[in-house]
Design goal:
Helices cover 33% and strands 23% of the residues. The model has no long low-confidence stretch (mean pLDDT 88). It has one domain: 3-Layer(aba) Sandwich (Aminopeptidase), CATH 3.40.630. By secondary structure, the protein is α+β, with helices and mostly antiparallel strands. Strands 1-2-3-4-5-6-8-7 form an eight-stranded mixed beta sheet, with helices on both faces.
């Protein structure tokens, strides 16, 4: 545990597929072209699925707002793209986006800081198998994208010397199923009786039993669980 915190952790660089083989990934700082491609190719497919929590999201707006707001609040914004390496020349296809506040009071200890996941989204299979320039067959679609995207936040926190602490708010549209999924990922759920850290209230919802977080111990466990993909 000590060495993982002190020496840093590499991001995941591959994902399993239905074929049994691995697909090469690259995790890179998010850029405007990534967001524009997502907005035009991925988001319309997400918007057709009423079960998606990220339906009707506007990443063009969210990234701009999150970056400005986090910067003004000294929250050290960070944004990452999880991408498939499509060819030997290094062309990449975004398959998940993660927007963080890199410095946020930890939910389990307000005197400490961690990362807060403001937005996280993964591409549906259809968005990845319908790219004419770089066709991906059904059995080559990457699996575990949700956990890999969540691991981006843990890795960022570890490498920024925040001991892996990560928090987020499970959108109400996801119901209890979403909270349960975060629990299965190793996150703990903040009791609604526990007050949130002192932050601008208009930017965050009240404590209602949907705030989830990784303590340092849980973050290390979740990080190690993906070591075979690094």
């Amino acid at each position: 545990m000590f060495f993982r915190r002190m020496r840093g952790v590499r991001f995941v660089n591959r994902a399993p597929t239905k074929s049994g083989q691995y697909l090469t990934l690259r995790i890179t700082p998010m850029t405007v072209p990534h967001v524009l491609w997502w907005h035009s190719h991925v988001q319309p497919i997400i918007d057709r699925d009423p079960s998606r929590v990220d339906r009707d999201w506007n990443w063009l707006l969210y990234v701009s707002f999150a970056t400005v707001a986090s910067g003004l609040l000294a929250r050290q914004p960070a944004a990452y793209t999880v991408a498939i390496v499509a060819n030997e020349k290094g062309a990449i296809i975004p398959c998940a986006l993660v927007q963080l506040m890199g410095r946020f009071p930890a939910l389990d200890n307000h005197s400490k800081t961690g990362a807060f996941v403001w937005f996280l989204s993964t591409a549906p299979d259809e968005a990845l198998t319908s790219i004419s320039e770089y066709p991906i067959s059904d059995d080559r679609v990457p699996k575990r994208l949700g956990r890999i995207a969540l691991d981006v936040a843990i890795t960022h926190s570890l490498n920024e010397r925040r001991n892996g602490r990560v928090a987020l708010y499970a959108d109400e549209k996801g119901g209890e199923a979403l909270v349960d999924w975060y629990r299965r990922c190793g996150m703990e759920v903040l009791s609604p009786n526990i007050r949130l850290p002192r932050v601008p209230r208009r930017l965050f919802k009240p404590s209602d039993g949907r705030y989830c977080y990784f303590s340092p111990r849980k973050a290390i466990e979740a990080s190690r669980a993906l070591d075979s993909l690094r």
